[in-house]
Amino acid sequence: MPAAPAGATLATLYLGVLPSAAGFVVWGYAVARLTVTAATAALYLVPVTALVVAYVWLGETPGLVEYLGGAVTLAGVALLDSRPRSGRPGGDRTARDASGAVPARSTARG
């Protein structure tokens, strides 16, 4: 590392901090506030976002394969989002005890 150029060292630090560490922090934040299904479905938007960034920042023109890949990705997200909420794992928000049973409701008024 001491013989590496400063640009290479800074690029390595950048790759270690922003895409890696910040990505995990954002992922943890999303999972803590969304259902795992919704957070995981958001991961399918990564290729589409990369396509837009490559076009805007790098001036790359997407080809047919990139457009098809983006369409397949968005179709997958739409398919996940179109399922009924009760059919999704974790979609039933009923309180359960440790055994998985729904506790009986109390009739006492407080």
Outline the structure in words.
The radius of gyration is 22 Å and the shape is flat. Helices cover 62% and strands 0% of the residues. Helix 2 packs antiparallel against helix 4. The termini are far apart. It is mainly alpha-helical and 110 residues long. The chain has helices spanning 6-33, 36-43, 46-58, 64-82.
Give a concise summary.
The protein is mainly alpha-helical and 110 residues long. It contains four helices and no strands. The chain has helices at residues 6-33, 36-43, 46-58, 64-82.
Observed structural traits:
4 helices; 110 residues; mainly alpha
Which helices and strands occur, and which strands form pairs?
Blueprint: H1 6-33, H2 36-43, H3 46-58, H4 64-82
Helix pairs in contact: 2-4
N-to-C series of helices and strands: HHHH
Mean pLDDT across every amino acid position: 78
Number of helices: 4
Say how many strands there are.
Answer: 0
Which structural class best describes the helix and strand composition?
mainly alpha
Instruction: State the share of residues found in helices, binned by percent.
Output: 55-70%
How would you characterize the largest beta sheet?
A: none
